[in-house]
Amino acid sequence: MSRPRISTFEQVMFFDTDCGGVVHNIAYLRFIETNRTHLAELLGMGLTEMAATHIFPVVVRTEVDYRKPARLADKLQVDGWLERIERLRFWVAFTITRPTDGTEILRCRQMLAVIRMPEGKPLRLPADWAGKYGQLQPIAPAGRGMR
Amino acid sequence: MSRPRISTFEQVMFFDTDCGGVVHNIAYLRFIETNRTHLAELLGMGLTEMAATHIFPVVVRTEVDYRKPARLADKLQVDGWLERIERLRFWVAFTITRPTDGTEILRCRQMLAVIRMPEGKPLRLPADWAGKYGQLQPIAPAGRGMR
Amino acid sequence: MSRPRISTFEQVMFFDTDCGGVVHNIAYLRFIETNRTHLAELLGMGLTEMAATHIFPVVVRTEVDYRKPARLADKLQVDGWLERIERLRFWVAFTITRPTDGTEILRCRQMLAVIRMPEGKPLRLPADWAGKYGQLQPIAPAGRGMR
Amino acid sequence: MSRPRISTFEQVMFFDTDCGGVVHNIAYLRFIETNRTHLAELLGMGLTEMAATHIFPVVVRTEVDYRKPARLADKLQVDGWLERIERLRFWVAFTITRPTDGTEILRCRQMLAVIRMPEGKPLRLPADWAGKYGQLQPIAPAGRGMR
Description:
Thiol Ester Dehydrase, Chain A
């Protein structure tokens, strides 16, 4: 059973930073959204399909641990993967790292549900997910346990 | 003939600044959007009406002159007014000032059209505007000519 | 012992929504940041003081539960309060509600540390906090337990 | 004399759109900032140099013409180029297009000055620019005159 996983890359722009000299919390969320969008595409829920079907994965819960600050011009790697699935919900997890010095910037976990808009009706996860992803267990990022 | 005009107020938050130590260009646009939303309400196009009718004023052109930087914790005043109307388009103008020291931070003019979504079809301006606003001429902000 | 607590108010603008028709996750974070900024001021860490001393509260962990979507033009109330303090860290909590129909939109908890920038050195919490806030226990938002 | 010019690419994410179903004005500004950052690097003012020297190009004036809306999942191309230089200021111009159907989404021109932060002191443009770029004339995007 292979775990859906994707890496995306960002370079810190001025608009990502604040006057504390570091990347602003809100910018990290944008980086994670971009990665999650591509991860959802891997899972069969691409933006084009969503725009057509109005079936979207929606974030129900977010947990973020901010570990080290990133700075202007940093090149960051965002890794996102499917952590585990339940009947109506699934968990994805992310790390943001700065590959040039190996610093872990942030960890994030999100719980998602699949809904049909605009009613907001929650749907069961796609039927083939149980077979493909039912045995997945959460994994720890390299080197440390995820809380 | 009275000119529709409205003032809104903002305090600069961390997320409005960048690592240059000043307010980021993109944040000023948010301040102007908020003012314009309230100005549109004065003109009879409130958010609730728009959500119901899908008739929106859309920005066709923006001109911004950045004059002095604002900084963290600054309390800013945004003044917005209807500058003039044409048959299918109208111009609004804005200044952002820091009242504590009288500094003018920014000037902005926007040209808008009224469209029906999702077709994006441009509509004639409301019938009563010609009588109410047809004679309005552009005004200069206090003390200096607008380019 | 009185618990520092503050309410702030937001109206949902176009730039807060996305094409799913609801408020975007990132916008809620901005609303919470604004509330937390005023809460920090209540705790003696105002923006002006921070700009002068370079001593900032920084968010170390964020947990958000998205409960119901807010929509364009909604008037939202953000309530933020100090939940409890430790030696080097403190927890704040927030709810966002739509008072017109009593809907709870979101709950959020954040753990913060106090650091001196640009070194990022963590500082002990102010000496008088133990006496003023040492006995505070987390409270549940009205009606339901916080997970 | 070769004109500095760069293309960058964006895919429209949920957070770039609003509940009108189209990309929000503020998102386009982010796309342009990213392109301009890379264009500045071509001109010898990279983010890393700026972070070290505190010499930044700052935007003094922005003009944007919004032509057609972009939508969720659109893949957009941003083209940016140096338009012309003066003694203390220079103009850059941008188009955003959707290559899949050749639609021009937006045109933008920005006037910039070079300043040293935090004083905000304007500096003369680099000495070698007159020789390299002094003869550049504004160019029209393909097919239509720039207003």
